[in-house]
Design a protein that fits this description.
The protein is mostly helical and 460 residues long. Helix content is 62%, strand content 1%. Strand 1 and strand 2 form a beta hairpin. Helix 7 crosses helix 8. The longest helix is centred in the last third of the chain and has 30 residues.
Length: 460
């Protein structure tokens, strides 16, 4: 009887659904803490608002239904900050670090979860990887906080300036987008120190720890053999497409918003704002321009960037750059009449290509279903003539939630309770990855997505 119970428990708790339970548990704890009277300035947060805020912080999204800087007390803000840090790095990573410190070794399940979160092959040194995760995180956040403190120290008391610097550095590196200013960073649109510090924290957090680890090895470990210092296909793909998307995004924002939301800025400030929006649109949620006043073409363009997201194994969301790269490679191969698919002269396994297609399809279905549900909850059967523009706003919110971006056109606080719950589910699914949710729901666990070491490309 006992053996049977243990067997069922082992089948129920797998490397696929364990992160789901971990994130759900963290969200529940965060919700309960945010519902405490000490967490709010004024009336206690409503349960749905506390749940939404806890989910947004844990899933490092940044969508808000209450103003973080004024509605939440210092205690409530610290709860949000801890949820951001735990959610950004992954609650399983924190658990594994603790176990590693206490025992010095990994269990098979912990090894599987960490591989599925951060690595591309079974040969990666997991203990070393986790140490590098912690090291990179602390290094980036401390460096970012120090730079931001230089600006805030001239505006506030040193203790307040330090708190603001730490909060925004952690939020930026974890790609969370939570801000203690009511208008996000719009007051700093012309400030290069704040804009570039936050932008590069977002970029480094959105690359993924594997890419940072390989860059560190490439730049500083000169004594290693040349082959050992080569970038993997995964890192090449993330870096190449990141540059392409950042450049294209900057040009797109300049073209569409030069005479609109950027009208009052100087030419250098316009280029800086366009670059910042291009960075934040794919994963972070900070903004130095008002998205609620942008042109429709800009919102559509931003939706595309939010849908793509950041790199696999990073703190960002979306379908991931890797999936986009594989789909582009597949399209190129088929247009050329080739049967195989390759990236950087490396052949991709059919399983990898199939997984990329699956991620894309599941994401489209999820966004379509959520947008339809949100349209019903917020508009009901209102005819199109009476609700012009609202459909695009609702679609924007859904894609922002799915991509764990956090950008908004300003309608999130006005959503109904049902609408907020819909976005809670979308944020949760977007943070864990659409394919992980599909696998958990079907109960069928596929071959580990990182057993395809021959192509070194992470999907999902």
């Amino acid at each position: 009887m006992i053996d049977s119970s243990k067997s069922r428990r082992k089948r129920f708790i797998t490397p696929v659904n364990l992160p789901i339970f971990s994130f759900a548990g963290l969200i529940l704890i965060g919700t309960l803490l945010l519902m405490l009277p000490v967490a709010a300035n004024g009336p206690v947060l409503a349960p749905v608002d506390a749940l939404f805020t806890a989910t947004s912080a844990t899933c490092v999204t940044g969508l808000v239904v209450v103003d973080t800087g004024t509605r939440l007390s210092l205690f409530g803000q610290w709860v949000v900050l801890v949820l951001i840090q735990c959610g950004g790095l992954g609650i399983m990573t924190f658990s594994t670090v603790l176990i590693l410190v206490m025992t010095g070794r990994f269990s098979f399940m912990q090894r599987s979860v960490i591989q599925d979160t951060f690595t591309h092959g079974p040969d990666t040194g997991l203990a070393s990887l986790v140490r590098h995760v912690v090291m990179f995180t602390l290094l980036m956040e401390v460096a970012g906080a120090a730079l931001l403190f230089l600006r805030f120290s001239g505006m506030y008391h040193p203790s307040r300036a330090l708190y603001l610097a730490i909060f925004h550095a952690v939020s930026a590196f974890c790609n969370a987008g939570f801000c203690l200013y009511a208008q996000s960073l719009m007051d700093f649109s012309g400030d290069p120190l704040v804009s570039f510090t936050v932008a590069f924290l977002i970029i480094f957090g959105g690359m993924g720890f594997l890419v940072l680890l390989e860059l560190k090895r490439l730049l500083f470990n000169r004594d290693q053999a040349r082959r050992a210092r080569r970038l993997s296909v995964h890192s090449k793909l993330v870096l190449t497409l990141s540059i392409v998307l950042l450049t294209g995004g900057t040009v797109g924002f300049l073209f569409s918003e030069w005479k609109h939301s950027m009208a009052g800025l100087s030419v250098p400030a316009k280029f800086m704002a366009a670059f910042f929006q291009s960075v934040t649109a794919r994963t972070a949620g900070f903004n130095t321009l008002d998205f609620g006043k942008m042109a429709n073409v800009t919102l559509l363009f931003t939706i595309l960037l939010m849908f793509i997201g950041a790199g696999s194994g990073s703190t960002g969301g979306g379908i991931k750059i890797n999936t986009l790269g594989v789909l582009f490679a597949l399209s190129r191969s088929r247009l050329r009449g080739e049967e195989g698919t390759s990236i950087f002269r490396r052949s991709l396994a059919p399983e990898t290509v199939g997984r990329a297609i699956s991620v894309f399809v599941v994401a489209i279905v999820l966004i379509y279903a959520a947008t339809m549900a949100l349209t019903v909850s917020e508009l009901g059967t209102t005819i199109h003539e009476e609700s012009r523009g609202l459909f695009l706003k609702l679609l924007f919110e859904v894609v922002s939630a799915f991509g764990t971006v956090g950008l908004s056109v300003g309608i999130t606080p006005q959503l109904s309770s049902i609408g907020k719950l819909i976005l809670v589910l979308v944020m949760f699914a977007g943070r864990l990855g659409p394919l992980s949710i599909a696998v958990a729901l079907t109960g069928k666990e596929p071959r580990s997505r990182f057993q395809y070491a021959e192509e070194n490309v992470m999907i999902g």
